[in-house]
Design goal:
The complex is a heterodimer of chains A (282) and B (443).
Chain A lengths: L2 H22 L2 E2 L7 E2 L3 H8 L1 H32 L6 H9 L6 H11 L6 H4 L16 H26 L3 H9 L4 H12 L1 H15 L4 H6 L11 H11 L3 H25 L13
Helix pairs in contact in A: 1-13, 2-13, 3-7, 3-10, 3-12, 10-13, 12-13
Chain B lengths: L1 H25 L18 E6 L4 H14 L5 E6 L1 H13 L6 E4 L2 H9 L7 H4 L10 H4 L3 E2 L2 E2 L2 E2 L4 E2 L1 E5 H6 L8 H13 L3 E3 L10 H12 L2 H7 L9 H15 L16 H7 L3 E6 L2 H9 L1 H5 L3 E4 L14 E4 L3 E4 L5 H13 L4 H9 L10 H5 L4 H13 L3 E3 L1 H4 L2 H15 L5 H9 L5
Parallel strand pairs in B: 1-2, 9-10, 12-14
Antiparallel strand pairs in B: 3-13, 4-5, 6-13, 7-12, 8-10, 8-11
The chains are: A mainly alpha (282), B alpha/beta (443).
């Protein structure tokens, strides 16, 4: 019975909007006037639109690149900050700083830093940093991946730090007696022991990357052209700037289906669902 | 025990549901009553205004109205530009819009008219008290199919070329009178290490005036009129393809500052290039002047800032006096307001909109009012030369094209911004631009 409030919240906040989106995806609505039936017309036009395919591909690329960049960096930082080196705590504070900033602040700051005339490149006379960072359609996606990594690596570092702290010291002591070096310890003790943390962090990254919106919206607005118009951004711009709520709802439903599918696959095949403790006595 | 927890759970869920509905109910506009003094038991009309430089002008006008009309008071609430655009759309859809709706005309106004959300003000516009008060080219934006739905409430904002007189003197040049002059100036500026044009290309809308002006200079205002009227294949007019070709020629020649597509309007980085002498020209709204006036007032006081109309195009049929930009902002009256509220709004428009003190307030913050016969006031203002240039331009303009993203339907406007940026980045060819824009007609 105690499930009831949770169930109600789920129905009101998840199911009702979802059904609403599915219904709207079958209708014409500009957000102001009357709603009229569209049948599958919105679905046909959205699926035939090259912008949709481009947005899907971009979201996929962002997902893969983000995972490839963020996982090793946060793994290393997390293991490092879990250790006992000198100055570690001071450095850890610096690493976690981005976590305190709002997405909009991060994006606005990077916009200023990356400005080709008044940004960090010209301030310090570093020609290598004076690039058309946000204006070059080939370059901008990697800039976005970098800024997102800058923003989210601290969070995942925190996960890995907690995970690494849980590894019993006795394992390292035993391996030292067996003559293992630091790299061997990392490879044969730390990594396997962090398996569950890697799964958790990766799931959050992959599913989370589907909803990257705020940073990209403020940083590039989806541009230049369609170069960073990710799926969530495409949905927002279609719905709230172009006033086409029907096609935007189609994109929203696609987003939900992909998100659910990914979450399902990840929990099913990574062992997320039957995660057990690796610790002694557990 | 079991019963107890059941009751608790039920109570909790009821509270939760009530809380939700209450939250939904209060997410709508809540009148904070900033301007209205207490005891407003009359019409209780409401208005949302834009925060920023013009906020005080609106607040002053409504405050003095409220003082004199205790039975027809307005409550005012201010919003930032982007937040307002989101909120007003939702409010109009939900029929909870404020009595006076602030707008830009164009495609969005058309949406409101189609939905029956705004009242027909034709009788008001032809009222002797109001007729002839506004400059014709600005009043025209509020007229759709012969009926008036919106009246001007803010300064005129034509786009023109702002230039740095010092760097023009350095290469011994005059502001370009024709497009050929302009193209001839480009290599001279580049040789002197100066970028011909600065533009905040990341913002997209900053690129629109180039297209709008070139289309107008080449083919006259009828080309855009056909597009706005949703005529089939209206973008196929040869003037459109030629305009985009000329834009790409200017890009190829190095006409825009390096990395222009990375420059955002935040902090006025684009304009800073103009007054710091790194760029020679900027094609912009009057906010260019206001930005410089705030960031580097000496540049203006030492007479280094020049301004000129957009150049003519040889063999083009458009009048070189035609303008593009934002003719003004507008008030419409919400059709969902009560009769008493609508009457209050009409009475306000008839007597206080853009009256003498309103005009003074606008001029004080550097906005040139769209009001006929205010030459004496402009001559007595802080920057008579600049304001008079703007005023005369608007007065003389045979056509004043509303910014294209506003003039078109929201969907077409959005597609135009993206496609035009791709033209500037040379990601698409003129014909691809024409094709993708033709596909947006009627959307």
């Amino acid at each position: 019975m105690l499930l009831l409030p949770a169930l109600l919240f789920f129905v009101v906040f998840a199911l009702v909007p979802l059904v609403g989106a599915v219904a709207l995806s079958l209708a014409h609505w500009d957000g102001v006037g009357a709603v009229s039936w569209a049948g599958l017309g919105n679905w046909r036009s959205v699926l035939a639109d090259p912008v949709t395919g481009n947005a899907l591909l971009l979201s996929l690329r962002i997902m893969v690149f983000s995972w490839l960049v963020q996982t090793p960096v946060s793994l290393m930082l997390g293991v490092f900050t879990a250790g006992h080196q000198r100055y570690r705590e001071l450095l850890a504070v610096l690493y976690f700083l981005p976590l305190l900033l709002s997405s909009a602040a991060v994006a606005i700051a990077f916009k200023a830093i990356l400005d080709p005339n008044f940004g960090v490149g010209s301030a310090f006379h570093l020609p290598i940093l004076i690039q058309d960072w946000l204006g070059d359609p080939q370059l901008v996606l990697y800039v976005v991946v970098f800024v997102i990594a800058w923003q989210f690596v601290p969070f995942h570092t925190l996960l890995y730090q907690a995970g690494a702290r849980q590894i019993p010291a006795s394992l390292y002591e035993a391996s030292t007696l067996d003559g293992a070096g630091r790299i061997q310890q990392f490879r044969y003790i730390t990594l396997p022991q962090l398996r569950n943390t890697i799964v958790t962090s990766s799931t959050l990254m992959v599913v989370g990357s589907l909803t990257y919106f705020d940073v990209v919206f403020v940083l590039t607005g989806g541009g230049p052209g369609y170069a960073t118009r990710l799926l969530p951004l495409d949905m927002y711009l279609t719905g709230f700037t172009s006033n086409q709520m029907g096609p935007a709802s189609v994109l929203a439903v696609i987003l939900v289906v992909i998100g659910l599918g990914l979450a399902f696959v990840l929990t099913k095949f990574t062992g997320f669902a039957r995660m057990t403790s690796d610790q002694e006595g557990a | 025990m079991a019963h107890r927890s059941l009751r608790l759970a039920l109570a909790a869920s009821v509270v939760a549901v009530l809380g939700l509905t209450a939250a939904c109910g209060s997410s709508g506009p809540s009148a904070l009553g900033t301007a209205s003094a207490g005891g407003s038991k009359g019409a209780d009309a409401s208005v949302w205004v834009m925060s920023g430089v013009t906020e005080d002008v609106f607040n002053n006008s409504f405050a003095s109205w409220n003082k004199a009309h205790a039975d027809e008071t307005f409550t005012t609430e201010s919003f930032a530009n982007d937040a307002y655009k989101q909120k007003i759309k939702t409010a109009i859809g939900a029929k909870t819009a404020p009595t006076l709706i602030y707008g830009w005309g164009g495609g969005t106004l058309q949406t409101y008219i189609d939905a029956g959300s705004v009242a027909d003000l034709s009788d008001l516009a032809s009222d002797p008290a109001l007729k002839g008060r506004f400059l014709p080219s600005t009043a025209k934006v509020g007229v759709v199919d012969g009926k008036t739905y919106a009246v001007p409430n803010n300064g005129v904002k034509p786009v023109m070329i702002y230039y740095n007189k010092d760097v023009f003197a350095k290469i011994g040049a005059k502001p370009p009178a024709t497009w050929d002059d302009l193209m001839a100036l480009v290599p001279k500026f580049l040789d002197a290490g100066i970028a011909p044009f600065t533009v905040a290309g990341q913002a997209q809308w900053t690129l629109l005036p180039y297209l709008a002006y070139l289309i107008d200079r080449i083919g006259g205002p009828q080309v855009m009129a056909n597009i706005v009227a949703n005529k089939a294949n209206a973008w196929s007019d040869p003037a459109v393809a030629q305009a985009t070709r000329m834009i790409q020629q200017l890009v190829d020649a190095g006409g825009f500052v390096k990395g222009f597509a990375s420059i955002s309007t935040d902090g006025g980085a684009d304009i800073a290039l103009l007054y710091s002498g790194k760029a020679a020209m900027s094609l912009g709204l009057p906010s260019t002047y206001q930005t410089i006036d705030t960031a580097n007032p000496e540049f203006i006081s030492q007479n280094k800032l020049g301004f000129a109309p957009f150049p003519a195009v040889k063999a083009g049929t458009g009048d070189p006096e035609d303008l593009t930009g934002n003719p003004s902002n507008y008030w419409s009256i919400s059709a969902s307001g009560t009769p008493a509220q609508q009457k209050a709004a009409r009475d306000y428009i008839k007597s206080d909109l853009l009256d003498a003190s309103y005009v003074d307030d606008l001029l004080k913050i550097g906005n040139v009012p769209p009001v006929a016969g205010i030459e004496a006031k402009i001559n007595a203002s802080s920057a008579p030369e600049y304001y008079m240039t703007v005023y005369n331009m608007v007065k003389a303009a045979p056509s004043f094209q509303l910014s294209l993203d506003q003039a078109l339907s929201p969907a077409a406007g959005q597609a135009l911004l993206t496609n035009l940026q791709q033209v500037f980045l040379k990601q698409i060819k003129p014909q691809q631009f024409v094709d993708s824009m033709n596909a947006t007609i009627g959307k």
